Every structure is written in structure tokens, then in C-alpha cells.
């Protein structure tokens, strides 16, 4: 079973690397570097402004560490056919699940390490200590995460649902207690307590011998992969994601404004695809909400303008794949509509959606910066939308058709 898991893991990683070429494109990496750099600079300035007696430092750190623990679930890589073909090997599946648990550790460990390191300045500020406590804190978080994955592995067996629910509630409460004890009493005490919790859980759960719940295993893995594919689908088409369309009658007044003319053929199609397709509309709303929350928290003109421009670019970039959404439909190939008309339709739709985002982002800056600066932010976004629609978008469309 060890070789079987290695083969399946290699196939899965090869598939993910193929998708990562589209996710980690030059534009996305550049935007991430700009965003991380801006947030890091803003965070650095914020730390300098905090008083030495800022009482909320440890509570903030404790809550963030506590709520990042569930991030990253058990990756078993099981498939629907395993219910039939691996059933004779069920007695050997313990080793398979142990392999999957070890495979599930690096990514959440990396995330916890980055967040722990990012929040350590707050801990140092509150405790008036040094960064030497970073490793005990990090080990504590890693051990608590390992304990949770052990519980998830135990949930793979039959007749464990109610017990696992109670164990998870207890683990969540104990984890919060351990984190705050480590922050207010001592990092070493928190680490030792976390190790004791992990040892107790492993010793107790490994003493239960049950048959695997194949249906639960398969459904859980399918849900995990679906979340991954949803993220990848923001950058490229994923065959594993089925498109969902919703009626959304409340948007009819906007869609009805598109008159039935030949030059509006693709505008009609693109608008309905954007508004009624769950992935496009969901992406637009998520970016609008996330951008609005971040912008509303800023009180600096340069950062407000930079973050607003960044999110306008992200929204526009993610809308570009609309251009090829109907290429597979035979009737669109028969339409007597020029490609230039198709490109102009996409330009018009993206410009309208980005203008909506620009208005929302500009309104979020009101009260945080001066009225004149808010107007300047809106002006900057209008210029960006014009450049994006009239210059950048045609270049991207030409590359897509090449």
C-alpha cells in the first residue's frame, strides 16, 4: 500500500503542477508581491505606532492562532472506485492513512509558521521579551494541528461520527486554552501541554479498531478537492468543476437594458454568463467584499489608492476568460458577427463591472481620507479602467486567439 499511495500522490502532484502554471502566472505573482509588500510595510508602520502597554496584543495573537488551526484537512486521495477495488485491502489501509496524514502536514505547517512569525512582534511587544520563544510557540501550533489531523483520521472509520464531534469540540476548547496559557504563562508550558494532549489522543484513538467508512472517506476527499478546484477555477477552466447557473430575477432590470441588436449578440451572452453563472458572479462579489473591507480599514491615501487599483486589476483580469466561454457552442460559430464586435462587447461589460467596483471602493474611502483624496482615488481608478479596457484587454484577447 505504500507504493500504491506514492503512485497516487505522484499522479495528483503532476496534475496540480499542471494547473499551477496557470495559477502562478506572471501577473498573479507580481500582484501578490505588491500586495504582500504593501501589507508588510503597513503592518511595520502599525507596530511602530502601537504603545508598549497595548493590552490587545496577546488576545489578537491568541485568537488568530486559535482560528488558523483548522486550516488544512486530511488529504487521503481516495477515489470512488476504491470502495470496490480496495475493499479486500482494508486491513492494510491503516498504513495508507498514516501516509496520507504525513502528506497533509507540510502545507498547514508552512501557513502556521508564516502566521506565527508575522505575529511574533506583537508577542514581543506585549511580553517585552525576545524572539527566542518563536520555536516553542511554533512547535505548540504544529503539535495541535497534528492532533486535529489524527482526529480526522479516526473519523475515517465507521460509527465514529458522534464521538468525533465531541472530541473535536473538546480539542477546540483545549487548544484555545493551551494557546492562551502559553501566551500569558509560558511558551514552554504551552508546548508541553500540547504534546501531552497529542500523546493522549494518539494513545486513546489508536486503541479503537473499526472498519473504514468508505462513503465518508470518498465524500470528504471529494469536498476537499472541490475546494482546491474552485480556487484554480478563478484562473483557468477546470473540467472537474461543473458550472451552475441561477435565474436571479432581481438582475432582470439590468439585463433587459441590452437591446436585441446584432451588435449586442455577445454582450447579451457575456452579461448573462457573468450575472447568472455562479463562478463569475461569486468571484466578482468576493473580490468586491474583500477589497471593500481592506480599503475601509486604511486611512492613508497612497495605500487606499494602491489597494483599490490592485483589486480593480484582479477583478478585470479574472473576467477576461469570459471571451472564450461560448466558443464551444456551434451556433456562435454560425453567427454573422465580427470578432471585433465580440471584443467590444467584452470591453463594454468589463468596463461597466469595473466602474461599479470603482464606485464602491471610492465610497469605502469616505470618512477614512479626505473628500478630495477620495475623488482622486476614483479618478485614478477611472484611468486604470480605461487603460485596462482599451489597451490591455485587446492585447490579452489577441494572445488568446493566437
TrEMBL record:
Q: What is the lineage of its organism?
A: Bacteria, Bacillati, Bacillota, Bacilli, Lactobacillales
* Protein name listed in UniProt: ABC transporter permease
Q: Which InterPro entries match?
A: EcsB_ABC
**Organism listed in the record:** Enterococcus alishanensis
Pfam name, any one: EcsB
Q: Which UniProt keywords apply?
A: Membrane, Transmembrane, Transmembrane helix
Q: Does the keyword Transmembrane apply?
A: yes
Transmembrane stretches, by residue range?
A: 21-43, 55-78, 109-128, 134-151, 172-205, 283-316, 349-369, 375-395
Amino acid at each position: 500500500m505504500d507504493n500504491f499511495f506514492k503512485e497516487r500522490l505522484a499522479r495528483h502532484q503532476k496534475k496540480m503542477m499542471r494547473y499551477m502554471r496557470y495559477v502562478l502566472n506572471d501577473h498573479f505573482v507580481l500582484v501578490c508581491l505588491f500586495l504582500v509588500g504593501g501589507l508588510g510595510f503597513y503592518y511595520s508602520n502599525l507596530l511602530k505606532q502601537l504603545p508598549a502597554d497595548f493590552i490587545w496584543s496577546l488576545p489578537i495573537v491568541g485568537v488568530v492562532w486559535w482560528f488558523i488551526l483548522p486550516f488544512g484537512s486530511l488529504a487521503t486521495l481516495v477515489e470512488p472506485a476504491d470502495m470496490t477495488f480496495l475493499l479486500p485491502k482494508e486491513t492494510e489501509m491503516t498504513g495508507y492513512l498514516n501516509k496520507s496524514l504525513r502528506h497533509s502536514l507540510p502545507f498547514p505547517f508552512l501557513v502556521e509558521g508564516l502566521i506565527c512569525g508575522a505575529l511574533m512582534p506583537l508577542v514581543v511587544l506585549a511580553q517585552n521579551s525576545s524572539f527566542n520563544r518563536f520555536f516553542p510557540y511554533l512547535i505548540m501550533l504544529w503539535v495541535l494541528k497534528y492532533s486535529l489531523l489524527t482526529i480526522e483520521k479516526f473519523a475515517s472509520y465507521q460509527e465514529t461520527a458522534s464521538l468525533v464531534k465531541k472530541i473535536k469540540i473538546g480539542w477546540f476548547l483545549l487548544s484555545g486554552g493551551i494557546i492562551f496559557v502559553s501566551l500569558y504563562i509560558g511558551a514552554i508550558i504551552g508546548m508541553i501541554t500540547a504534546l501531552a494532549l497529542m500523546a493522549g489522543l494518539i494513545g486513546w484513538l489508536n486503541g479503537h479498531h473499526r472498519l473504514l467508512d468508505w462513503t465518508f472517506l470518498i465524500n470528504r476527499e471529494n469536498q476537499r478537492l472541490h475546494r482546491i478546484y474552485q480556487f484554480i477555477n478563478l484562473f483557468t477552466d477546470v473540467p472537474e468543476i461543473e458550472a451552475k447557473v441561477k435565474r436571479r430575477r432581481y438582475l432582470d432590470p439590468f439585463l433587459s437594458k441590452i437591446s436585441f441588436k446584432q451588435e449586442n449578440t455577445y454582450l447579451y451572452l457575456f452579461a448573462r454568463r457573468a450575472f447568472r453563472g455562479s463562478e463569475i458572479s461569486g468571484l466578482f462579489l468576493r473580490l468586491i467584499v474583500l477589497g471593500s473591507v481592506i480599503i475601509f480599514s486604511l486611512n492613508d491615501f497612497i495605500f487606499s489608492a494602491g489597494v483599490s487599483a490592485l483589486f480593480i486589476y484582479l477583478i478585470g483580469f479574472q473576467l477576461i476568460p469570459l471571451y472564450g466561454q461560448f466558443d464551444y457552442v456551434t451556433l456562435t460559430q454560425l453567427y454573422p458577427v465580427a470578432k471585433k464586435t465580440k471584443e467590444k462587447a467584452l470591453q463594454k461589460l468589463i468596463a461597466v463591472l469595473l466602474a461599479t467596483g470603482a464606485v464602491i471602493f471610492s465610497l469605502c474611502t469616505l470618512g477614512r481620507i479626505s473628500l478630495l483624496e477620495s475623488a482622486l482615488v476614483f479618478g485614478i481608478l477611472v484611468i486604470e479602467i480605461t487603460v485596462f479596457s482599451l489597451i490591455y484587454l485587446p492585447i490579452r484577447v489577441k494572445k488568446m486567439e493566437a
